[in-house]
Amino acid sequence: METARPPAPAIDDEDLRVLQLIAQGLPLDVVGRRMDMSERTVRRRTRAVCDRIGVATPIEAVVWAAHRGLL
Prior knowledge:
It is a single chain. The protein contains 4 helices and no strands. α1 packs across α4 and α2 (28-35) packs across α3 (39-53). It has one domain: Winged helix-like DNA-binding domain superfamily/Winged helix DNA-binding domain (Arc Repressor Mutant, subunit A), CATH 1.10.10. It has helices at 13-23, 28-35, 39-53, 58-67. By secondary structure, it is mostly helical.
């Protein structure tokens, strides 16, 4: 018997764009400039995404999204 996976937490397009830029190895201040937001906002958003999907670091969030075909 196969166990059903719980639905993936919602990640919006802006969150995905932040993860894409992090995946490119860009520092958070550069991510902020590219997204027209402060570095502090990028940090907060990234932390919120990590909390929502249950990972500890932005790199883990990138891997999580990549494994789900989101990046």
